[in-house]
Amino acid sequence: MSRMTVNDRPVEFLMDPETPLLWALRDAANLTGTKYGCGNGDCGSCMVHIDGEALRSCLVTIAEAEGRFVTTIEGLSGDRTHPVQQAMVAEQAIQCGFCTPGIVMAAAALIDRNPGASEEEIKAAIPNICRCGVYPRLVRAVQRAGRVARRQERISAAPAPGISAEDAAQEVPALSAPD
């Protein structure tokens, strides 16, 4: 049994202590925002914060996480107002979205430590692989998030989280088959 705090809630995993934290989060805790990408620590899709440090959850066992504080993308900001989340949207630094949670977690840890990070520091702190190649926009987004964190800028362009059903789709008359 491995006990830890996940997204500010005490959790006890009744799994083999050698289970990667990634699988405990996804399968046992149903926190599926943490993605499985490569399984060997290369891609960063599974990045979470452990005691405030961005770590790849596929490389950390639940035994190693015992007694620690884990934050997943779901726990970063319930209303998606974290500066990195807002800047990623505002800078259009998201394409397919698969790698986004891991990138956001790596960037958020950097912004917490160093909101004025240089381009070189950003590239070093965010080793995540993005198949869509959003890297130039990603750097701009992290720089912008740093300005927001330092209260030098405010983002108002990013939409509020969620969309109402009425705004997402409407009922239309059925199409008739061509004659």
TrEMBL record:
Residues 150-179 are annotated as: Disordered. Residues 1-76 form the 2Fe-2S ferredoxin-type domain. InterPro entries: 2Fe-2S-bd (IPR002888), 2Fe-2S-bd_dom_sf (IPR036884), 2Fe-2S_ferredoxin-like_sf (IPR036010), 2Fe-2S_ferredoxin-type (IPR001041), 2Fe2S_fd_BS (IPR006058), Beta-grasp_dom_sf (IPR012675), Diverse_Oxidoreductases (IPR051452). One of its GO terms (molecular function) is 2 iron, 2 sulfur cluster binding. It comes from the Bacteria. Keywords: 2Fe-2S, Iron, Iron-sulfur, Metal-binding, Oxidoreductase. Transmembrane segments: none annotated. The keyword Ribonucleoprotein does not apply. This is 2Fe-2S iron-sulfur cluster binding domain-containing protein. It comes from Qipengyuania vulgaris.
